[in-house]
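User: I'm putting together a small comparison set for a docking exercise, and I want a reference complex before I start. The sequence is below, and the ligand is magnesium ion. Could you produce the 3D structure with the ligand included, as structure tokens?
Assistant: Of course. I'll restate your input first, then give the structure tokens for the complex.
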Amino acid sequence: MSTRRVLAMQDVVKRTPVPFSNNNQQVSQYYGSNVFGLDAMREFLSEEAFNSIQNSMHQGTIVERKMADQVAACMKAWAQSKGVTHFTHWFQPLSGATAEKHDGFFEPIEGGRAIERFSGNALVQQEPDASSFPNGGIRNTFEARGYTAWDPTSPAFIWGETLCIPTIFISYTGESLDFKTPLLKSLHAIDKAATDVCQYFDKNVTKVIATLGWEQEYFLVDSALYNIRYDLQQTGRTLFGHAPAKGQQLEDHYWGSIPERVSAYMRDFEYEAHLLGIPVRTRHNEVAPAQFECAPVFEETNLAVDHNLLLMDVMEKVAIRHNFRVLMHEKPYAGVNGSGKHNNWSLATNTGKNLLSPGKTPKTNLQFLTFFVNTVKAVYEHGDLLRASIASANNDHRLGANEAPPAIMSVFLGEQLSKTLDELEKAIHNGKMSPEEKTALKMNIGRIPDILLDNTDRNRTSPFAFTGNKFEFRAVGSSANCGGPMTVLNAIMAEQLVTFKKDVDALMNKKVEKDEAIFQILKKYIIESKKIRFEGNGYGDAWKAEAKKRGLNNISTTPGALEAMISKKTLAMFESQGILNHREQEARYEIALETYTKKIQIESRIIADMVSNQIIPAALNYQKTLVESVRGMKEIMTPAEFKVVAKSQLELIKEISEKVTVIKTEADLMTEERKKANNLDNAKKQAHAYCEKVKPYFESMRYNVDKLEGIVDDATWPLPKYREMLYLR
Ligand code: ADP
Ligand code: MG
């Protein structure tokens, strides 16, 4: 092995689980203790300030400056009581990662002394340089400032020695430059639209929140091996690597026993998560070797998104303590499953009702049916936008690769609900439904919960599936900020519910009775949105053909999928719901294209580097050994003997030469294509060029490199192999 690989493997075999002690405390004893939550607020705030924040959290009122001073002082006192020295605004720029800039509390004062101070101003607003974050051309050249502004609906928390304050991030001219601002607006839109619709059924509903429970998949790899794989370090995935003889084909990893080193890691990051009030509760092995999943109890969506982002950061930092690196990339290894992040989504009322949970009484069932059918209709109307919301260079490796839902958007309802919708469709004749039919329908839905509970009616191959009391958007990538797709889902649902209310009111104005009007409109939607429903195997080729017949799009790469972001329909939808204006949405589209281009560009450069600095030298080295061996044989053998014995070695030498030549030639051609792409004058053309001209070289070069890996002496191969990286003890 190359010296580096030998040293790394020596580290790996010496690893033992990192001991962990929380003195046998139960989670309830420390849960949320690093969060400026209700308990801390009650202890540290005056009643007036406490009420002001509570109102802001629940009614969206603005916290006055005077009050902000008080809150800041109390937050500081609380944080200092826990040894905190710094604070930061914590926000979600469109680069995808979270951003933070730590400032000390201390301020120098006269006499060479210092005091600790944290003002209301510092809490409420900061001014980072917007030009250093993706802005899609929104920033004026002469006004580079952006603002971060406190989001009181997500509590401040302590991470390390720093008090972190969740904030939105907007430009000087007020356009949003982050994921959080439109998410908050979409939550406001759906609250309004859903509350209005709830009035048909229950006057006590005054607020509706969207709930999100994500399931985070990830891989672990030993840090010693990670440190000598430049591709993993810089792109998050292995650009080369021969599949191991034993991958996931025995299906022995899923829900298997968790290796001790890994469970020590899980315990540790869950502990940190619980201190931060992140309710992670589930952990298990996933399908691929070295792949795992964790999931929390669901929460209000804004908080759930913040918690997911924070947890990803926690997981990365804690992994290093355990000599692991955590891989959040959608496809770290070829040939085994990639990682996703299922987004379980529903709507809940202030009266404690889950609007997507079929009830036992006929009265609530029409309400359930209303929200259920409207969700299907919303996905039907904006399937392409949902597809765009999960598009990324990383996720392109998963979608449609027989391990993740296809790039075709469809909705899975399950047998019972499909039947119910079919019945409703047939039940109305001549614009009317008999009282018996109405009762029968409502009663049928009443039986659904029991049927769903047994869990058999599930389909794992659908990108958007109803799972009993929520929809599960499964196509989201593991490294994504779920704020993006959740903004789209809330927005399209809000628009749909507004339309629904208009449609029903129009009938009621014509003296159609309320239930009848609702049934009629639902029937209309069921008929209109039929083509988005699919109950079969989403991985099969038959579905691709069927979807094509139905006129559903199947766009397998990001540059094409992103087009839906700026369609007239999308722009109008976001604008009508007050979530993103044209300029903001167009900027987002630009940024998504640029991000795509940069990712492929980086991968392409690393491929070229690794090929010329690591792969080709290793291959030529081995070839040299072979050549010397053949030369030696020639010296000591008769020509007749030599001819027989040297044959296989000569073939190997030739094969290595051929592969090296192909790889080198393709690396040069790829570099040429990159240069051409870089010279194109707009983001769309560049992204397409990188997708269609540069990326195709990745596969063929990889094919030849992986073949070389199989030929070249293991002792000289420079990269840790899949069989070494994928097996954890
Ligand atoms: P699975 O889908 O793996 O069978 P569950 O159905 O128990 O598991 O839940 C998966 C995820 O769905 C969990 O993160 C859970 O918190 C979340 N979830 C459950 N109910 C809701 C809801 N009403 N809204 C949003 N998420 C939910
Ligand atoms: Mg699930």
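The first helix runs from residue 3 to 14. Residues 215, 342, 472 surround magnesium ion (ligand 2) (CB under 6 Å).
User: Thanks, that's exactly what I needed.
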